[in-house]
Design a protein that fits this description.
The chain has 201 residues and is of the alpha+beta class. It has one domain: FomD barrel-like fold (Beta Barrel), CATH 2.40.380.10. It is 21% helix and 40% strand. It has three helices and ten strands. Strand 8 and strand 9 form a beta hairpin. The radius of gyration is 16 Å and the shape is globular.
């Protein structure tokens, strides 16, 4: 059983712009999302991303189409993202991960974690709810040599999360993330400095 990461002694002030950095198991860079810290509740820490903000990874760079909020729970094993839909085609997108936590970078705290391929998705275009990227998971668990206990934990967690999403159990309901989406919409947010954004910042 994994040990949940410690809660940092002091979080950034709500409204603080920051980057949410993902990496792969071998420490290679993955997604970097421009975000704002929204606050904390019983479920964990919440971050927001406005439509038009940047998400980038090696060989891909795009501006998000819809406001979204992301929950980083104390377990450090997934990140729950909830989109305003439409225009987004996914309402819920859960990235299973490892070692998701606050980390210090250049004197500031940032959320960071290891992307572990498996995702739980709830679409709004008729495709329903499913566990995604099983083929990538099978490929990478061999290529990267994921430890057996990590594989077993995350495969079980994916099934549990899919069931919770289907049952609309909080925080996978509408009311919980919608309150944070409302908070995101109400914030007056300063832009990131140009040197702060991007995968190599």
């Amino acid at each position: 059983m994994s040990v949940p990461p410690e809660i940092p002694p002091a979080r950034p002030e709500p409204g603080t712009r920051l980057l949410f950095r993902w990496r792969k198991w071998d420490a290679s860079p993955h997604w970097v999302h421009e975000c704002v810290y929204l606050g904390h509740d019983r479920w964990g820490d919440w971050f927001g991303q406005r439509a038009g903000w940047r998400s980038t990874r090696p060989e891909r760079d795009y501006l998000v189409e819809a406001d979204n909020v992301t929950l980083l729970p104390p377990s450090g094993q997934y990140a729950l993202t909830v989109n305003v839909a439409p225009p987004a085609t996914y309402r819920i997108y859960i990235d299973l991960g490892w070692d998701l936590r606050w980390a210090e970078r250049d004197g500031h705290l940032e959320p960071t974690g290891i992307d572990m391929d498996l995702d739980v998705v709830s679409a709004v275009d008729g495709r329903g709810i499913w566990i995604d990227d099983r083929d990538e998971w099978d490929e990478h668990r061999m290529a990267y040599g994921y430890p057996l206990d990590v594989v077993e934990q995350l495969e079980s967690l994916a099934i549990d999360l899919e069931a919770l999403v289907r049952a609309r159990t909080a925080p996978f309901d509408d009311a919980t993330p919608d309150a944070w989406l409302d908070r995101l919409a109400s914030l007056e947010i300063a832009p990131l400095e140009p040197t702060e954004s991007g995968a190599d910042a």
